[in-house]
Design goal:
Elements lengths: L4 E5 L3 H12 L4 E6 L6 H14 L3 E6 L3 H9 L3 E4 L25 E4 L8 H8 L3 E3 L2 H16 L5 H8 L3
Parallel strand pairs: 1-2, 1-4, 2-3, 4-5, 5-6
Length: 167
């Protein structure tokens, strides 16, 4: 699958890593939505400029409250990623997107949240015919790196997937 255009909600650690990797993977355009009041906003402005000046990708930063821009960007994107903690336990009733019309059939939608495994964000996307995935693999492979760091051994990721991912 070739992801050309992505829209990323959030500009913290996960959002930054996702934006950087999307640019390295050759994404044509990366739309980043962040709160101007976020402690990460200035860093994200620098990231967007660096992506534009050092890769073939373009990156644009938007105010996360700009629903008109969000709807336009998502309609032009192949992938929508929630890289915020909105909707994670203990507040699974919360959702970063309030209008389910933003989702369209075939859109790849990812939520980096792993608890709950199906957030309201993913549930809304699935109901609209999107292809969805959660943050379980991100959690697994972050754990594998930490496991190797602390033990010097490879974590049995296949065993973990077999036990916890076959639900």
């Amino acid at each position: 699958m070739c992801i050309r255009d992505s829209t990323i909600l959030g500009a913290g650690g996960a959002g930054t890593a996702i934006c950087a990797q999307a640019a390295l993977d050759g994404a044509r355009k990366i739309n980043i939505f962040s709160r101007p009041s976020s402690r990460f906003h200035q860093r994200t402005e620098k990231l967007a400029k660096a992506i534009c000046s050092t890769t073939q990708s373009t990156a644009e930063l938007y105010d996360s409250a700009d629903m008109t821009a969000l709807k336009r960007c998502v309609s032009e994107s192949d992938m929508l990623i929630n890289a915020t903690s909105v909707g994670m336990n203990p507040h699974p009733e919360n959702c970063i997107v309030t209008d389910p019309e933003i989702f369209y059939p075939g859109l790849n939608v990812c939520d980096v949240i792993y608890d709950p495994q199906e957030t309201r964000f993913l549930s809304m996307a699935k109901e609209r015919g999107c292809i969805t995935s959660n943050g379980m693999y991100m959690l697994l492979y972050q754990g594998a790196v930490a496991f190797r760091h602390f033990t010097g051994l490879d974590m049995p990721t296949e065993l973990v997937k077999e036990k916890f991912f076959s639900k």
